[in-house]
Every structure is written in C-alpha cells, then in structure tokens.
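Regression report. Comparing outputs from two consecutive submissions.

Submission 1:
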Amino acid sequence: MNENYKVINEYILTNEKLDIERLTVSKEKSEIAEQLESLSNEELLEIRSKVIHQLFHNRKKYLRFNRREVEEGRVIYIFSVLTAQLADFDRTYFEGKFRVEAEEISLYDDTVERVIDTLYKPYYCEAVIELNEYEDREKGRIIEEGINGEWNSIREYDEPTNNSFPITIHFGASPFMIKKMHAEWYTALEEKDKKQVESILDKYEGKDLNYIGQPDGKAQFDGLFQNVTESNVHVLRVGQASANYCFTTNTKTHKYYFDVGLPTDGNMLTGDGLKFLEDKIVKGYFEIAEPETVILSHWHSDHVKGAFTMKDVAAMVWLAPVFKVSRTTNPESVNRLGSYIYSKKKLASIQANQNPIYTCGVFALYHGVGSKLNDKCFMLQLNSTLLPGDCQFDFWPQGFAKTKFKYKNLVFPHHGADMKDINNRIDCLQNSCDTKVIIPTGYNLRYGHPADNSNIFNGKNYTVFPTNPINKKNNNASGSIFTNYFNLCVDARSDSVHRTNTFLTKTENKEFSIHDK
C-alpha cells in the first residue's frame, strides 16, 4: 500500500501544476499502470482522500465571501475556500485534458484517464468566522475589508494576533475535518492566478447544461416505486440540516435518500459533537448505505453537504432540480459537486413543468410553486408520508396536500422555521395524536428554528418529534410550542409538554423512523 501510494504521489502530487507529460515516458507509464492494477477499491479510495488532503493541507488558502448572517448579537461570515493546487486539480479534471491525453497515449486504452478519474473526488471546502456583534467590532471591520468579491489569501496562526480573527475551516474529502485557527488577510489573488482558481466554473458558467446522455428521471422514479406499497423513512439526526434515508420493500428492496445534508456552518447542532457525525452519520449511513438514488429537494449546502463524505457520489443517480453553475448564488463546493455529477452522467433529466412531476402508484414527486429556491424545491409523497423539503405551506401545490385523503406523517418544512399557512395545507394531516410531525432541527436556535408556529399547531392533536433537544431563546419571551413551559437554557430532552392539544414528545438521541404502508 505505501509503495503504491508513493509512486502515484511522486508523479501527481509533488508538482505545483499537474504535469500529464510526466506520465508519457514509457518507464513511468508502465510503473503507474502496474501500481493501479494492484490496488483494491478500498486502497484506491484511501489514496484518493490522501491526494485531495495533500493538495489542501499546508497550502496557501484563498477565501471568497459567500454570505453573512446576523442574529442574537452574533455575526457569522461564510466563505468558499480554495488552494491553487486544488483549483488546478479541478481545472485539469473538468477541462478534460486528462481524457484527451489518455487517448493519445493509448496506455492500456484508458489507464491515465483512470489514474485521475480514480483520484479525483468532489471536496467540500468552506470557512466560517463567528464574531460577537458588539465586542468584536474591530475584528468585524478587518473582516469586512476582505469582503470585496475577490479571492483573498490569509496567513494562518495557531494563536491570536492583533489583527487576526478566529476562523474555522471545514474540509470534506472523507474523512470530514474541521480545523479552528486564527487568520489575517494577506494579499488579494493576482490577476494571472484568478483563472486557475476559478477555472472549475469556466466550462459550465452561464450555460444551460445539455442533459442529453443523462439518466431519464421518469424511468428512475418508476424503478424505485413500481409495484411498491410500503416505505420506510429514517429522518437522520444531522442537526440544522436535512437528510432522510429511505427504503421500499416489495420483491426487492430499493434504497435511496431524500436530501443528504449537513449543517453549513460545520456546527453539527446535535449536542453530541463531531464524533456523533463521524461514527453515526458518515460511517453509519453516507459511507455504507449504498443507495441507488438521491432525490434532492434543492441545491442548498444544508441539503447536499453530506455528499462530500460519501465514498462515491456518482455511484447513484441524482433526481434533482435543474442545476446551474453560478458564482453569485452557489458556493464553490456546490458548483463543484453538481458539475462532477453532471460530468459523470448521473444527473437525471427532469422537466418540472407540471405538478406532480412524476407519479407511480401512491408515490409522487412534486415541486413547490414559489419563486425562491426553497419554495420551488422538489417535494416527495410516500404513501401517507409527506417530505416537503424547505417549501413553505403557502407554496405547496394543491395536489401535494389533497383534501380527500388525510396523511399520517409530515417531515416539517425548513427545519421548523416560522411558517404561514393561509390555505390551511396542514389540515391534510389526520387530526390525531397518532399523526407524527417530525422536525429536523438543531440543538441550538441560531437560525430561529423551530419557531412558535402556534397559528399552525393550535387546535391540532398531532404528536411532534424534534430530532434534537430544544433550548429556549434568551430574547424570546413567549418561547415556542417547544419551549413555552421551560426555563431559560433548559432543554426538552427528557420531558414532554402540552400546549393546546399538540404534544411534544420525549426527545432522545436518535433518528426518527416512519414505517408507512
């Protein structure tokens, strides 16, 4: 194993730029081909993770601003992160230069292509800076100076300096790593390097992707649900994010995900920390579940971030809303993931010009009718269970909440965010204590989730299951349906509360399961 890795590392990783010509010398070609042939799949996966890690670790990092969030006295900045080496790795892969060269070399037909294709893996690379809005105003000013729409490099420090700010970098290339440090702005990216750093987007930016040759969405949907009557959903406990592991049973078990999210800020918000994430979620599901399909509600990081922990994100077909590369709306990580899945011809062609988009027996795929990404996301009906993604009730299509049929289970939209329901869509649920309303929410209330939503829950007999213990907001005098009878900072982990007729259940450290037939 070490010798195998050493040879590949020597030819690919030790150069500032990946030089395919170094592989064209006969001796080198034969050596690397022999090494590849001797590796098992597990060894290749390990090497691939090491390759990406080496192109990131101890390299000069460039940050570009994505978005800012302000709430409850905190300011949170989220940045995309790249190194020049990772950008060049992206460029070389997505421009297809390895493929062209491989055809010219004719080394075991496609060995050079397979070298790079085996080693390349989409990686998540973003940074979070969190400050106190009142105490850290000077650091906030320094950070704002670096938010100019361009890539800026940073100096890294283990200890704080006069001009440094605390920064946490989240890097996912299996394993998923989070590193805390202090940083200072250093220099803006020079003009000559910009193309290299941003080059992954050049091939697809501003273009409508041609879905010819991609899987057929209807055929894939029918393959999952044809002649199926039973479904099972595990609402995974990933904190402030959305991930649902599902399977159906008939003559054959079909396994799939509805969303594969992790929290965008890296804080797992489960009350258990990173070990829970690594042992239970990543190793327990994203690495070994081996589903055949991902049904994606929409391309937001908290719904796709778990994909960066998977062994092979292109081992399954993705049923997802139309993907478009955008520097202005998508983090680089999402652009990289979508581009990779598309390049591997695993991104299904789906026309969302009708509701429902697809039906198969008691299963149906819808899309929201709003204008925002959340409110036009894909929504899934499984028997009497509804998974609406982040779509607010007011933007549910009529068919998704049929009034003649009463549903038994709802995964509450948008992590329990403040909802309006002018048309009383929630009345599509049976008004019974046997009706499950599962809210995939976090351990704290950074995002204001779950909100009160008393206008929706009052008078209902539903049983509500938050996926994590709920803490009361310090500045929320009324609290919410989950916290109204708790003192400050007391969680609902082992208690239950009755407000009007809606029940909050005991919250254990587990995912919630639905069996529906």
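Submission 2:
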Amino acid sequence: MSGRPEILFPLFASLTKLDGVGPKTAQILDDAGVSKPRDLLMTLPHSGIDRQRKDSIREVVAPAVATVEVSVGAHYPPRSRGRPYRVHVTDAQTEFQLVFFHARGDYLQRLLPTGQRRIVSGKVEIFDGVAQIVHPDHVLPLSEAADIPAFEPVYPLHAGITQKLMWKATRATLQLAPDLPEWCDAALVAREGWPAWKPALVAAHAPVAMADLSPEHPARQRLAYDELLAHQLTLALARAVSRRAKGISSEGTGQLRDNVLASLPYAPTAAQTRAVSEIFADLASGYRMNRLLQGDVGSGKTLVALMALLCVVEAGGQGVMMAPTEILARQHLDGLKPLAAAAGVRLEILTGRDKGAGRAQKLADLASGDIHILVGTHAVFQKDVAFHDLRLAVIDEQHRFGVAQRMELGAKGAAVDVLVMTATPIPRSLALAQYGDMDVSVLDEKPPGRTPVQTALVSTTRMDEVVEKLHNAVAEGRQAYWVCPLVEESEVIDMTAAEERFKQLRAALGEGVVGLVHGQMPPAEKDAAMARFVAGDTKVLVATTVIEVGVNVPNASIMMIERAERFGLAQLHQLRGRVGRGSAASTCLLLYQAPLGEAGRRRLDIMRETEDGFRISEEDLAMRGAGDVIGVAQSGIPRFRIADLERQSGLMALAQSDARKLLHDDPGLQTERGQAARTLLWLMEQDKAIRLISVG
C-alpha cells in the first residue's frame, strides 16, 4: 500500500472545493489549523444554542436566544451618526425591536419589508424596559425557516470565521465523507453501543440537545477512540519494529548481584524485586528491551538499575547510565560507587569536562572492555566514544529524552537494551500516550529507612517566625533548601528574587551559612555552590527550581517553598522529594500568600494529605489538563483534536490493548480489519506508522 487510499481523496482535497468556501476563507481556516475537509470533520462543536420555534419572546427569560415568527412593522432610521437603526416587529403576543448598528437602510428594507412575515432568531435583551434583539443571527422568509436548526451547534471559532460558515462548511464536508470499513473490534463496538464512523460524525456535528456534546456521548466516545487507536497503533508498530530488532541475550550468573545484596543493610522491596525480574526476562530474551521504570521520588530506582547493569556485566557485556546534567551524573556515580565496589566491578564517569590524556585513557579502557559500567551525560554520544560490547543503556529522567534519541542510542551498540527511569509519576492515560511503545515497570513502594516528610502550610505573614525556626535548626546542625517563588515573566526576575532572599537570610543566619543557585549562573559556579552544600559547608541553599530534579543531600531535612501556591502539584511533589532522604525527621514548609485562590488551596491541601506521587499526578491532571501537566511542547504528547485525556482516560488503555492485540493477530495488517486499520492510519495522518508496516 504505497499511498493514501482513493476512498479518502475527497477528505484531503482543497477546502475551496466546498460550497461557500472561497480562497480567502480557506486561508483563514488554514491559519486556524484547518487545512483540508478532514480537519473540519475533526473540529467538533463545543456547545450549542436552542433555536426551537417559540410563539413569542415572552416564552424566554431575557437575556436568552429566541426564534419567533414576526410581522414586520415600521422602520426607524438613525437620527444622527452612530445611532442605531431600529425595526419594530410583532410576534404572536407582544411587540419588540430589532436593532442594527452601521447598517445600510436599503439592505434592511430588502431584508425586512414592512407588512411581511419573517422568522427571526437572536438574543433577546431588555434595554430601558424595551425588549430588543441586536443584530439577529437569522432573518429568513417563512419558506426558508427549515434552514435554522432547532439546536444549532457552536464551533470553536477563529477571527473572520462565522458560525454560519462553519455550519455550511461542515454540512458540505459531511456530504463528501465516505462510509469507511470498520476498524474497531466488533465486540467492543457492540458492548459500548457505538455507531459506525460516519454516523458518529453526523451525530457529533448535529447535536439535538446539550447532552449530545458530552465526552460521554457514544458518538463522541467513538470518534475519540478512533483518534487514540490510530495513535496507539503507531506506537505499537514502533514497538513491534524494535522487538523484531534482534537483541543479544544476556543471562548473568547472579554472582555480582549477590555480592551487592549481601552488602545492603535491608532487603529490596517487593516492587523492586518484581521490576528486577521483569527486566532480567527482557535481557535474557532474544529481542531488544525497551522498558520504562517508573518510580516515585525515593522508591529505589538506582538499585534496580544497578542490578540490570550487573546482569549484563556478568554476561560479559558493558552498561552505560545516562543523566541529563553533569550534577545528576555525578550523583549517580556517588550512589553507585559503594555498590559497584561491593560487586567488584569498574565504574567510571565521562562528561564534557573530561579532556586530554585523562579522556583518552578512559576511551581506551572503554574500547578494551576494562570499564564495565560508564556513567555520563550525552557526551557518551560523541563520535569517538566506542564500547567493547555495550549491551544496556539506562537513561535517567525521560522528559529530556525523546523517541529520536532512543533510536540514536540503539545505534551505539549492535542491539542495546534500553531502560528509561523517570521519577515523575505520570497518570496512566498520559504514560500510555507518551510511552505506549515501551513496556512499563512501576515501583510503587518506598524502601525501608525513609522517613515520611511532615508537610505544613504557613502564611508569609509569619516570615520572621519561620526564619527564627530555621536559625535554630541550623544551630542543631541541620541543612535546608529555600526555594524562591516562580516569577512567570522571566528568569532574570527569578534571579533577582533569589538574590534578595539570599541577602536577607545571610543577614539573619550569618556569613558563609547560606549558598545560592539560580538558572542564570555559569554552570561551573552552580556546580561549586551545589558542591559546598553537599559537603555541608553551607547549611541553607537558596535556589530557584534548578534543584527540582534528582539532587541528593541526605543531611538536608528541611524544604522551604516560598509562594508555594504558584507552583504546580508535580513540581511541589518533586521539590518535597529532595528531603526525607536520610534518617532525620524531615519537614516541608509551604509558604503561601493569603488569601489563597480555590485552586491554590486545593493543591496545597493535597500536598498536605498525601505523599503518593501517583495520586498527586492524577489530581494534577484533573486540575490542570493534559497539556499543562507535562508542558506539551517538550513532552512528546500528541495534540488530539477530539480525544480528551482527562475525561476519557479509560479509552487510552483500551486503545493500547486493542492495538497490541490487533498487531499480534495480524502483524502485517493484511486481514479485512487490518486493511481497515490502515485506512484509519491514513485518515489520522499517521503516515509514519504506515512506513513501519512496510519495514516489517
């Protein structure tokens, strides 16, 4: 199947082929992201107006829309410039006025001839005790009354496009829409009571009541599902291709891992053990691993990753662990060092800082296989870095690492297994949207020895008290983070806020006690300030959100978040996760400025109630919507036109299992349903996926 099937041609033709759409309108629609008839079909109405015929405007309570038959009375042109033009009309029970601004009299005489009957529809308002409709939406002769729908769909509009135009253009497009073969599972359609694709479109574009606009309506559910199914088919195809990629089977002896487990003061959690066995099964299999390890802050991802790395070393291979920044790479190094020593393997780090002879020596040792595990930043990708036998790449903090980079990494080794770790709990529907091509292991328990963090809300009016308490805590040898407020406008203002707070705390707590990091600092300065805090030389670290991800200072047991109401839930959760890493009882103070808005109050209350990152992420999604939770621009989450990930999250899981089952039963999409699924992929513009079928 080399190109788009012919049955879809009309939906991908020019908009100007539609009745009433000229080149100018087509351009306006194109600017709004609607460039072909298919896009019009995928733009569903978001509300509606009841235009059922009434006997009189007295049957509605102003301000409200009414549609009535009137007898046209006298015209009153404006007495002076800028005044409105008025036309008196009478319905079955009362008289009222139609009001027009900047209208031409001769046009209105033709539209509303005195003595004749017309249907008018528009918003009735009372002005100075007189009922009036300003600029009626519809004025029609009785013979054309049927042109006004009893319930008029309202479309999301862009400048220069009227509802009337959207109505006409969508009707014309529905005329063009072909009946397409069924790509959904027949049993599913029957169980959910869904209409077929075309009837679903017709119903969604012609609602007859408000209930028809709900995401729960069968027609809307069906169309949302089609969109999600196409997306999940694409991911499932990508997964099938990576699974067909021959992997190297790595079966370890267990020797190195036993050494490490023996050196630990506690036993791994059941969740860790489960994740480890899932990963080992993937490593031993003959295909490539592509797995996501999702664990909340402090759920023990590092140990799981190390077990996986040791497994490939036991089998004679090498492993690499990659982090987004040098600070985080060095932290991984520190965390892994004692464990690697217990196992008896050689662990090294490679970052942009390595230069000259030192770098050359490391590269030689990597190429000869003397280095077993390498920790690094994306410097690991440089051309001159060659491994002796790279088998596993562990990647930390996925958000900064898309599908394209996953592919690039695969090119480094013959068939590198990939394990991605993320500390950001993502609601299931979003995880499926973003990582549907991967298998997922979840760490949903905390290892022993982690103390719960006490979270309290304090108003900024008690700032002096807070600083006094901090003074006492520092005197007892404790360390604290002080996170400065987010200022939307710019990082420069963030920086100023942080510098001010730094000066005030330094004055209150003493020279040399307080450190500062913010986004505008040169990286070397930032690293140095972090290092002083890690070493315990400074006791309080004033920071903008640069410390959000992955910083590990076990002695730090206090987290202050200033103007906490400005932060999102996920961010607050990540920040709080920086404390509670040692044995000391930890506290997180959320400093807020009263009065709190409703959303702000709810966010802070949830933080106080729970430390469960998955529950927090579901709440975050419900409150903010999918686009915001991950910041769509850098998240890899597709923008869906119809599907609503918050309200239809169950559909995503359904689409994933359906897509995987379809490909399992029919890998080349050759059956009747498989061919229909190809049509769906073309319809949803998933051409990339179609190329993947041909790869297979």
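Expected: both submissions complete independently.
Actual: both completed, but the second showed a warning that disappeared on reload.
Relevant detail on submission 2: The longest helix spans residues 218-244.
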